[in-house]
Design a protein that fits this description.
The protein is α/β, with parallel strands linked by helices. The chain contains 5 helices and 6 strands; from the N terminus they run αβαβαβαβαββ. It starts with a helix and ends in a 7-residue tail after the last strand.
């Protein structure tokens, strides 16, 4: 199931890139093509005593591992997370698998962070929150995806940036928690 999903993802990515080659000389400017994956953190453990910084639930930990498997064959230069246990631990399996440190960002400075992402032109995973992921996507692509409902954890936003062209693709993971 994962291999089929990854194959579909790769094909969509290739189509997005190829569609842009007719508008500009992309192959001569390959540094202008990069992809950012935006996800909301995995499921929270509401039974935790640390109400201000809820950790991941067992299901959330499984989903984070599943995200790492999903991104296994995808090149990443950077992994970003907000400074919460649940976001860091959502990013952690991917960061470990890719041997990349997790860089922290602040949701209060999304304008600055979006500029940072666009300037660095890195393939990256960005783990955020229901209220910040849509805002960041809008800042990066000028498309409004809105907030993510509090019970939605299965969305992976793929932002393909090719020069001045920006495309967003939405994937819904088929992950099922094993309890």
């Amino acid at each position: 199931m994962f291999k089929q999903f990854k194959s579909i993802l790769k094909n969509i990515f290739i189509v997005c890139i190829l569609s842009q080659t007719y508008k500009s000389d992309v192959f001569a400017q390959t540094d202008d093509v990069f992809t950012i994956y935006l996800v909301r953190h995995s499921e929270k453990d509401y039974s935790s005593e640390n109400a201000l910084d809820l950790p991941l639930s067992a299901c959330g930990e499984q989903r984070s591992q599943d995200l790492s498997i999903f991104l296994n064959d995808i090149h990443l230069d950077a992994v970003y997370s907000t400074d919460y246990t649940r976001t860091r631990n959502t990013a952690l399996p991917t960061a470990i698998a890719k041997d990349i440190g997790i860089s922290l960002y602040d949701t209060q400075n999304l304008n600055s962070f979006s500029t940072h992402l666009l300037t660095n032109k890195q393939d990256a995973l960005v783990v955020g929150h229901s209220y910040s992921t849509g805002v960041l996507a809008r800042l990066l692509t000028n498309e409004n995806i809105g907030d993510i409902d509090l019970d939605i954890y299965n969305r992976i936003y793929q932002l393909v940036i090719c020069g001045d062209s920006r495309k967003i693709n939405l994937f819904n993971s088929s992950f099922k928690c094993i309890e």
